[in-house]
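Give me the 3D structure for pyruvate dehydrogenase (acetyl-transferring).
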Amino acid sequence: MYSRCRLNLVQNALNIFKTNYSSEANIKLESKFLLHNLDKGPSEEVTLKKEDALKIFKNMDSIRKFENSSAQMYREKVIRGFCHLYAGQEAVAAGLTAAMRPQDICITAYRCHGIAYVMGATVEEVLCELTGRASGIARGKGGSMHMYTDKMFGGNGIVGSHVPVGTGLGFARKYTGKDGVSITMYGDGAANQGQCFEAFNMAKIFQIPVVYICENNLFGLGTFCARAAANTKYYTRCEYIPGICIDGMDVLAVREGIKFAIDYAQSGNGPIIAECVTYRYFGHSMSDPGTSYRKREDIEETREKRDCLKKYKNYLTSCNLFTPEELKAIETENKKKTEKASQFARTDKIPPLEELNTDIYVKALEPVRNVSHFKPLAHINSNKFPLTP
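Predicted structure for pyruvate dehydrogenase (acetyl-transferring) (389 residues):
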């Protein structure tokens, strides 16, 4: 009996040691994937390494914090014009980039702050772009809807217009023999655009390596998706392109689903559609209170029961990768960084008037006589953001 007690104590001690020092975890997803024209989908058993888990959490928490800060700056009229916030949808952005490879590229719509951040922009660059300052990712000229990085081709303001562009990016990959796929993101509202179906058709004819991601946040502007679409199962809407439906509030499901889609497209199978069902906490834009077409109770219930950050934190603590205290420390650090970036975005310098003539073409036009009445400027981003279609 004494020996057995000692054995139990030793085992408990080992378990505590393992709990404190877990470097990876095997996790059973809470949600299931729905398939269209596919015999097999992603695994619902995932492995999560601690360093990957940390990066995903930092990305999600940073987006949440700087989007909340953006909302406050808009209310103070520090940010003007259009402002489409990503709060609530963080799992899609973080899961997407956790699945992408270095050779992959993406393009998205106007709700692009979170995507720009996970694709390489800093919090300062995002917030300065929103306030129209010189340190913005597009030097203050793009604003909320037009942000870019070297592998992110926008931020595009016209609904659905970028879907053919994303298809073209994938075509360029195939035509030039380069590895990598084009991640082309659009919303449930844009899914009804005719140009989307034209792009789907071309992508399938040429077997273009493109992953179409439909971010279905349930509302297009102020219209519930069922009032605008005869078929709201967006992943099934193309009979000749397979699809997969993903819980967009579960970042690990997004990661595994997009990994599967990338592998499918890269293997010569052509395009695939991945629908991520998610939810936005703010209105369509900051000019929309977001409560005339949905109940406040529904928003609060989603925040309480389906919030992607809460769900992910539960994964991390229950599988012993992080303690609640460790996650709290990360949140505190992100809050400080966001506050600092917000202050900088309020006080950074205004772009000079000469900036009107830069970034129009790949090579600046200023050296051409009579093109510009302003002092010539070099194309500042030509080396920082080389073209990689």
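The radius of gyration is 22 Å. Let me know if you want a second pass.
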